[in-house]
Amino acid sequence: MPVGALWQALADLVLPASCAGCGGSGQTLRHEVCADCARAVESLRAAPTRPDPAPAGLPACVALGAYDGRLRELILAFKERGRHRLARPLGALLAEAVAASAAPDRPLLLLYVPDTAEAARARHGDHMRALARCAAERLREAGRRAGLAAPLRALPKADSAHLSSAERAAGASGAFVLRRGALERARQAAPGSVTVLLDDIVTTGATLAAASSLLADAGVRVDGCVTLAATRRYLPHRAIWP
Ligand SMILES: [Zn+2]
What we know:
This protein is α/β, with parallel strands linked by helices. Helices cover about 40% and strands about 15% of the residues.
């Protein structure tokens, strides 16, 4: 090994040299992202999205962008590739989407879809909890009143790869249980606040609907869901032959 190569390899372990969005190297990275990728995701504007068909009990949903391109790469890098420093910028993007969706004078109560214990172990922490914390912080820095509560606990997941969407929806309804202490705090905070359920991606909406229904039954009404991304086929319909 040439002199210097070992150091380079070691340094790479500490500070990834490639952008988490485009994989490009040799650029100045801020929070693991190059200037081009940062510009691209910062230019996204939150918009309403709705799975079609939408499952019963799904609140209004807002997503920052389609689940593709740089946004998809950043979510995957954060969630599956250990790029933990993305929590702050991705949390800030979630905060932007929340701020754009709720009346500016109302206090906010942020809830999130938690990881299963197994997923949280593999990711060295619950990735949505990290994002929700950063989002709440960002909102408070911007002068909003924003609380965070964690009334949901995810149960171990059955292997759902081979299930139909109806079976998946049935599975999603049994995916969570309530954490009593946190539920009580959410119940007290919710009435005067806009209650927002956060997740990284909305696909069929089954998970968000199941979590929202469980919370509603326990006295915490979710006013809306905010995600970073929506899978493209569920974005508002566009002409097939423009
Ligand atoms: Zn990049």
